[in-house]
TrEMBL record, chain A:
It comes from the Bacteria. The keyword rRNA processing does not apply. It comes from Ferrimonas pelagia. This is ABC transporter ATP-binding protein. Residues 10-234 form the ABC transporter domain. GO terms for molecular function: ATP binding. SMART domains: AAA (SM00382). Keywords: ATP-binding, Nucleotide-binding, Transport. InterPro entries: AAA+_ATPase, ABC_transporter-like_ATP-bd, ABC_transporter-like_CS, ABC_transpr_LolD-like, MacB-like_ATP-bd, P-loop_NTPase.
TrEMBL record, chain B:
The chain crosses the membrane at residues 286-310, 331-361, 381-401. The lineage of its organism: Bacteria, Pseudomonadati, Pseudomonadota, Gammaproteobacteria, Alteromonadales. It is a multi-pass membrane protein. Its main location: membrane. Keywords: Cell membrane, Membrane, Transmembrane, Transmembrane helix. It comes from Ferrimonas pelagia. Residues 18-205 form the MacB-like periplasmic core domain. It is found in: Cell membrane. Residues 289-407 form the ABC3 transporter permease C-terminal domain. This is ABC transporter permease.
Length: 235, 416
């Protein structure tokens, strides 16, 4: 385990963000994630999951409140610094279409290292690490040099996890990573995601509307929608 | 970043190569238009060389040059052969070429002259006329054809042709059909109006007009009795003068311009050419503008393709954003792609133009006497290539800026 378990990877306190062109706000009174901890954000579509993701990843800036990644407050950073911190400290898995179609599987997995020197420094042998992650995600090594367009959706999602994990970032953000998978593939995928995050000591923030995923996480938050906006509450 | 860009471009090979083709063709077209423009100017200036003065009846510089050298338009008046003989004996005059114009053959002008034409007439870089076939006229009814005349009308040595009275178009109603000429020589191509001329002796001009008055034939002349007539020319249209030394130029010119027996004009061909070219300047500018618009169309094509591809690339941008790429990375990625396309397109266009030139060079030389040569870009072509690069880079700012805005608006959200 690379990350110190007592370290707080993500701290959100009293955060509020007002959507442009309206009065509706997204508020997060309290949300913390320690190293190796796993949390799930549950909410219907349109409740503000993507916005929260963009806030945590530093693409959007909150209007008020505290948002810190690895103890570093994002709101005091320039946009370029936030981009750099995202590259160094975060692995992101999307719902689908995670991979660049013009890169091979291996090149896709290595992609974050191009933008993140700190993650690059943690990897001794990138090729070996790619192979290790691929095997850890229960994928065949022969896929390494294949074009990603030849992969099934399930395989693509696993490659995306391998890519998020390379260089062991502090936090893995996964946005509906299983929505394109069938239930059996979903369960195996979640087990692998959880175990690999734990092995690396990376915190995992899972965004999904699927209650079945709750069994692999330590804590659960609900995006509660009201007239005035969305509030993120623990449950 | 660079390898990412190249791989991304390879993934969009069809649209990228189409864009490249459009730019390359527009650049090649520009180079072609430029070549035609400069070659036209060049061949224009190459029409006559080595001649120090063009002398004709008193008229404007350009008019004199047009009818005597370019064989266009009509002379204002004739000059007496005695005046010509006297002036050609002047001090400082090395040689003269008499020119008697006024007849034609199927639209091509007939030039009455003497052997000095083949001896002294020069064009281009002091090149003399050479005969591709046969020899200069010797007998009274011999004719030497310019390259284009022989080529277009399909004449060979020994063919018989009839000259028409008047310099008019291809249909003349008064033919000198009683006195046919036989082709004794065909000149090599020069790329000058010489190619479009038929050359006969001054005596022949005199002979075919025996019995003509006021532009019509009033009485026939028996060919057998032609020897009995005095065929010494009485008038000329113009003559070209070569001097022994350039220092005498102004003296001789003044002497001719102040000639007492009849009013004459002596013109420096170089000056008259320059004067004429300023008249054609507008046409030259129009060509340059057309060429510039061709390139603008090419770059607009590139802009269209890049902008059209932006929407389908939003997903790609979101992935790069998630990897930590900032909006400026996305901006750079798009912008350098445009710059690279402009660069590759320009280079390809240049190569395309050069290949075409190499392929067409033998044809151009044979048909038009144009010397097309390959070489590194110079002058306006080099400037244009730099300008395309700058314009392409500037145009690339538009999709780059749009992608930058998308990136800020979309964040990590994958909009489709």
């Amino acid at each position: 385990m690379i990350h110190n378990p007592s370290q707080t990877q993500l701290t959100i306190a009293g955060l509020s963000y007002r959507w442009p062109g309206g009065e509706r706000t997204l508020t997060v009174p309290q949300l913390t994630l320690r190293a190796g901890e796993r949390a799930m954000l549950r909410g219907a579509s349109g409740s503000g999951k993507s916005t929260l993701l963009n806030l945590i990843s530093g693409v959007l800036s909150p209007d008020a409140g505290e948002l810190a990644l690895l103890g570093q407050p994002l709101q005091q950073m320039s946009a370029a610094k936030r981009d750099q911190l995202r590259a160094d400290a975060m692995g992101i898995v999307f719902q689908q279409f995670n991979l660049l179609p013009y890169l091979s599987v291996e090149q896709n997995i290595l992609l974050p290292l191009k933008f993140a020197p700190k993650r690059r420094a943690r990897v001794n042998d990138p090729k070996q690490e790619t192979a290790r992650l691929l095997q850890a995600m229960e994928l065949d090594l022969s896929l390494l040099n294949r074009s990603v367009t030849e992969l099934s959706v399930g395989q693509q999602q696993r490659v995306a996890v391998a890519r998020a994990l390379i260089g062991t970032p502090a936090l893995i953000l996964a946005d509906e990573p299983t929505s394109a998978l069938d239930p059996i593939a979903r369960d195996r995928f979640m087990a692998l995601l959880a175990s690999q995050c734990q092995a690396a000591g990376s915190a995992l923030l899972l965004v999904s509307h699927d209650p079945d995923l709750a069994k692999v996480v330590d804590s659960e938050y609900l995006l509660h929608v009201s007239d005035t906006g969305t509030e993120v509450r623990p449950c | 970043m660079l390898s990412l860009m190249l791989r991304s471009m390879r993934n969009r090979l069809t649209s990228v190569s189409l864009t490249l083709t459009v730019i390359a063709i527009s650049v090649a077209l520009f180079i072609g238009v430029e070549l035609v423009r400069t070659q036209a100017k060049q061949s224009f200036a190459n029409t006559i060389s080595g001649t120090d003065l063009v002398v004709g009846a008193r008229s404007g510089n350009i008019n004199l040059l047009l009818y005597s050298v370019f064989r266009l338009g009509n002379p204002t008046n004739n000059i007496g052969y005695d005046t010509y003989e006297r002036l050609s004996q002047s001090r400082g005059v090395a040689w003269t070429i008499p020119l008697a114009l006024g007849d034609s053959h199927r639209g091509y002008r007939v030039v009455g002259t003497n052997q000095d034409y083949f001896r002294h007439y020069q064009y281009g870089r002091q090149q003399s006329l050479t005969l591709a076939q046969g020899q200069p006229f010797n007998d009274l009814f011999d004719v030497v054809l310019g390259a284009e005349v022989a080529n277009k009308l399909g004449y060979r040595l020994g063919d018989h042709i009839v000259l028409s009275h008047g310099a008019g178009g291809s249909t003349s109603f008064s033919e000198h059909d009683d006195m046919p000429f036989s082709v004794t020589g065909i000149l090599a191509p020069t790329g000058t109006p010489v190619d479009r001329s038929l050359h006969v002796s001054l005596e022949a001009i005199e002979a075919i007009h025996l019995g003509w008055q006021g532009g019509t034939r009033t009485q026939g002349v028996d060919l057998a009795q032609i020897d009995q007539f005095d065929l010494t020319p009485k008038t000329l249209t113009a003559f070209l003068v070569g001097l022994e030394s350039k220092f005498q130029l102004l003296n001789v010119q003044r002497a001719i311009n102040t000639n007492k027996s009849e009013p004459l004009s002596a013109v420096l061909p170089g000056m008259a050419l320059a004067e004429l070219w300023t008249l054609l300047d507008q046409a030259e500018k129009a060509l340059a503008i057309v060429a510039a618009f061709v390139v603008a169309v090419g770059l607009t094509g590139m802009l269209t393709t890049l902008l059209a591809s932006l929407n389908e690339r939003r997903r790609e941008m979101a992935i790069l954003r998630a990897m930590g790429a900032g909006p400026r990375h996305v901006f750079l990625l798009l912008w350098s792609e445009a710059a690279l396309l402009a660069l590759l397109g320009t280079v390809l266009g240049y190569l395309l133009a050069q290949l075409t030139i190499v392929a067409l060079a033998p044809l151009a030389l044979a048909q038009y006497g144009l010397v097309l040569s390959m070489g590194l870009p110079t002058g306006s072509v080099a400037w244009m290539m730099v300008a395309v690069q700058i314009a392409g880079s500037l145009a690339g700012l538009v999709p780059a800026w749009r992608a930058y805005r998308h990136t800020l608006a979309d964040g990590l959200t994958q909009r489709l």
